Amino acid sequence: MKNKEYYISIEIGGTNLRYSIIDNELNIIYFNKIKTKDFSDAYDKIEYLSKNIIDDIMSKYKIKAIAFSLASLLDKTRRIAQSSPMINNFENVELADIFEKKYNIDVFLQKDVNSLLLYDINKNHLDKNGIIVGIYLGTGLGNAIAVDGKIHYGFSGGSAELGHIPALGCYNKCDCGKTGCIETLVSGRKLEQIANNHNIKDISSIFNYFDDIEELKDFVRYFAIAVATEISILDPNAVIIGGGVPVMKNFPLDFFENEVKNNLRAPNPRNDINIIYSDNDINAGVIGSIISVLGL
User: Which of 14, 20, 25, 225 has the least C-beta neighbours within 10 A?
Assistant: First the structure.
C-alpha cells in the first residue's frame, strides 16, 4: 500500500479557476472553483492565490507539491507563464520559482490542455504507443499532443498552438496579439458573437438554430478544418475532442465528422480516423496535472 501523499492542484482556465487537494492515487480530497475573472481582476495575483487558496490548505495538510494547469503559453522549462491572453497582466510570471521560494516545496506548471489530454488518455485506458491528440473547444481552441504517452512540447516549448494557426482572409485581432488566428473564428467567444448577431438570448440553445444560420455552419466548418489539418500532419492513433462546445445541446456531430473527413485525403487517413469524445469531467484538469507530476 502506498504512503499517502497530498498535492495542491490549481487549474486556471479561460472561464473557471478550479483547485483541489489530490492524493497520489488520484483521489480528490477537496474541490472548489471560482470564476477566473475574479483572479484576473486581482491586482496582486500571487497574493490572491496564496491568501484565497494555498495558505489555508498548507495549514491543514502536509503538501508534497503544487501543480498548476494554465491557459497560458509556457517557456521551454515550464517554469514561467509567458503569455496568458485570458488573464489580465499575467505575462512572464516566474510562477514556479515564486511559489517554491514561498512554500519550500516543488511547483510544477503545465498547460491546461495538456492536463486535459493526460486525463482523457488515462480515463479512456488508451494505448499510449503512437500519437494521440486532444482538441478542446471551449472559451478558446486548445490543443495538446502526446507521443508514446508523453506530452510533445516542441523545441521552444510552444507546440500545439492549433488555435493560432492563420486563417486565410481573416483579419480579426486575436487576444494572443496576432491577427487572423483561427481561434477568432471558432471559439466560445465567437459563439457568443454569433448569438448576439442573431439575437439568441440563451446561448446553450444556439445549435437548435443550426440549420437556419449559415454563420453557425461556418463555425463548425472552421472547427473541422482545424481538426483535419492536425490529422493530415500527424496521422494520429486517436483524436480526442473535448471542451464545452461539442457537448452543447444539438451540436451537429454528424455534420462535424463529415466535414473533418471531407478535408482529409482518401483512403488514408480519412478511412482510419479514430475520434473519441471526452466526457468533460469537471475534475479533468486538476487530476490531469497530477498525472503529469506523477508521470503516470
Answer: 25
Q: For residues 142 and 242, what is the distance between their CA atoms, to the nearest angstrom? A: 9
117: left (phi over 0), alpha (psi -120 to 50) or beta: alpha
The residue type at 166? P
Q: Dihedral sign, CA of 22, 25, 26, 28? A: negative
Task: List the domains of the chain with CATH numbers.
Answer: 6-112+283-294 (3.30.420.40), 115-277 (3.30.420.40)
Burial class (CB in 10 A: 0-12, 13-18, 19+), 145: buried
Structure confidence by residue, pLDDT tens digits, 243-262: 999 999 999 999 999 999 99
CA pair distance 41, 86, nearest whole angstrom: 11
Place of cell 478535408: 263
Q: Are 220 and 137 in contact (CB under 8 A)?
A: no
Buried b (16+ CB within 10 A) or exposed e, 200-232: beeeeebbeeeeebeebeebbbbbbbbbbbbbe
Count Cα atoms within 13 angstroms, Cβ side, for 102: 17
Average pLDDT in the chain: 95
